[in-house]
Specification:
Blueprint (H helix, E strand, L loop, with lengths): L1 H11 L11 E2 L2 H11 L6 E5 L5 H6 L5 E6 L5 H7 L5 E5 L12 E5 L5 H8 L6 E7 H8 L9 H7 L2 E9 L4 E2 L6 E8 L9 H11 L7 H9 L18 H13 L8
Parallel strand pairs: 2-3, 2-5, 3-4, 5-6
Antiparallel strand pairs: 1-8, 6-9, 7-9
Length: about 270
């Protein structure tokens, strides 16, 4: 399967960039499964990040109203624009973490593993219907982990406050050229706020970050080590951090603010 990708890269005089984390999907069946999971209609504008040689793009353009891709590697620009010239296809050349993202209905991407976290949270600032994204398997496992599970983490908490996330299927590293060192997973993301409203988002994020530096400590000790707080009458103080749900953490944060233990910047 990889021979076709190698031949195309050789034809274009290109080599995969380690710096850009380029690993090209060589199995079109995976792309078909991703697009099927997105349930694309002829009314959808679809965003794709890092299209590379367009294996996934080729499936998307046949179903969507419009496809917008963001590609950092300029060497693919001419090839992609020529390949998809018969479709409603726009290309943004630049670093996806720096460019302004256009409006879109759905996002389907095999994103570079090294920008998984910042890209995910940048996407979640946009108003869209559904994301079908491929991540490093370990990262995906942390995204979908529930409280008390071994992969439950800061990432699990922060994603859960902004979206409903579900793992769809795993993808072997051998489905890429060159193969990465790890397997991948495809995840669905449906943006939407949690059932509780986070009033002080910056403080909530800071507390979550500090707490999970001491995930096996009790809340009382984690707050002492992380913020220098000697807390007494607060909820969950004898619980371990890893056993606190996102809503529990939210309640804890609001209690600390109400007691004046976490100052709010005016």
């Amino acid at each position: 399967m990889a021979n076709g990708i190698k031949d195309k890269l050789n034809e274009l005089g290109l080599r995969p960039s380690k710096k850009l984390g380029q690993h090209f999907l060589v199995d079109k069946e995976i792309a078909l499964r991703q697009v099927k999971s997105a349930n694309i209609t002829s009314k959808d504008t679809v965003l794709e990040v890092g299209p590379g040689l367009g294996v996934l793009t080729e499936v998307i353009v046949k179903k969507a109203k419009k496809v917008i891709v963001v590609e950092k590697d300029r060497t693919f620009k001419g090839y992609l624009e020529g390949k998809f010239s018969d479709y409603n296809f726009d290309m943004i050349h630049g670093d996806v973490l720096k460019v302004e993202l256009p409006d879109f209905d759905k996002v389907i991407s095999n994103i570079p593993f090294n920008i998984s976290s910042p890209l995910t949270f940048k996407l979640l600032k946009k108003d869209f219907e559904l994301g079908i994204l491929m991540y490093q398997k370990e990262f995906a496992d942390r995204m979908v982990a529930e409280v008390g599970e071994k992969n439950y983490s800061r990432l699990s908490v922060m994603v859960s406050t902004k979206a409903k996330v579900k793992k769809l299927f795993d993808v072997s590293r051998n489905r890429f050229y060159p193969p990465p060192r790890v397997d991948a997973s495809v995840v669905s993301i449906e943006p939407g706020r949690s059932s509780y409203k986070i009033i002080h988002e910056d403080i909530f994020e800071d507390v979550v970050r500090e707490l999970f530096c001491y995930r096996r400590k009790t809340i009382k000790n984690a707050l002492k080590y992380g913020f220098g707080l000697d807390v007494k009458n607060i909820p969950f103080k004898t619980y371990r951090v890893e056993n606190l749900s996102p809503s529990d953490i939210h309640r804890l944060v609001e209690t600390l603010i109400d007691k004046g233990l976490l100052p709010i910047e005016e």
